[in-house]
Write a structure and sequence with these properties.
Oligomer: single chain
Shape: globular
CATH class: Alpha Beta
Structural class: alpha/beta
CATH superfamily: P-loop containing nucleotide triphosphate hydrolases
Number of strands: 5
Organism: Tichowtungia aerotolerans
Number of domains: 1
CATH architecture: 3-Layer(aba) Sandwich
Bound molecules: shikimate-3-phosphate
Strand order of the largest sheet: 2-3-1-4-5
Distance between the termini: 14 Å
Pfam family, one: SKI
Order of helices and strands: EHEHHHEHEHHEH
Number of helices: 8
GO biological process, one term: chorismate biosynthetic process
Protein name: Shikimate kinase
Helix content: 40-55%
Pathway: Metabolic intermediate biosynthesis; chorismate biosynthesis; chorismate from D-erythrose 4-phosphate and phosphoenolpyruvate: step 5/7
Length: 167
């Protein structure tokens, strides 16, 4: 029997990775982290890809990987926050997958990422950058049918809510 993928979407710092880990433990499904795969294959961190080849080159790698992973089954896919920018990614993920969007307030995101140095899009005034990017992407995240409130729920609660949708 085929098992659909669970696709975790959401802005940076909304808890996709940690929620994916809990889901993998609870279900025994394989967890794949898109950013980690891109880094492994490129042999360098995302920040280097952005700095050396530019964001469009990163988005191309992300696009190809979204397509590749969508053709597999039974995966928990932790995506990068910008995967929503390409409608083809979303079409692929929705094709046979359960797509959920994790949300968090800008304050929570700021607290989580305040000392992070790995996100190339947050390299200046983080508060400003978070609210600016969130605002432009809001319609894309809001368009996802299943929203999981990451401010109200901890990672266990988020996994629980996602598994209810997966039944
Ligand atoms: C990005 C989010 C990052 C990573 C890259 C770009 C974005 O992933 O893919 O830095 O555009 O929101 P996380 O959401 O895991 O931080």
């Amino acid at each position: 029997m085929s098992k659909k993928n669970i696709v975790l979407i959401g802005f940076m710092g909304t808890g996709k990775t940690v929620t994916g880990r809990v889901l993998a433990e609870r279900t025994g499904m394989e967890l794949v982290d898109m950013d980690s795969i891109i880094e492994e294959r490129a042999g360098k961190p995302i920040s280097d890809i952005f700095a050396n080849e530019g964001e469009p080159a990163f988005r191309k790698l992300e696009r190809a990987l979204a397509n590749e992973l969508s053709q597999r089954e039974g995966l928990i896919i932790s995506t990068g926050g910008g995967v929503v920018l390409d409608p083809d990614n979303m079409a692929d993920f929705h094709n046979g997958g359960l797509v959920v969007c994790l949300t968090a307030s800008p304050e929570t995101i700021f607290q989580r990422l305040e000392n992070d140095t790995t996100r190339p899009l947050l390299s200046g005034d983080k508060k400003k950058q978070i609210s600016g990017i969130l605002e432009t992407r809001k319609p894309l995240y809001d368009a996802i049918e299943h929203q999981i409130d990451g401010d109200r729920l901890d990672s266990e609660g988020r996994a629980e809510a996602i598994l209810k949708l997966y039944e």
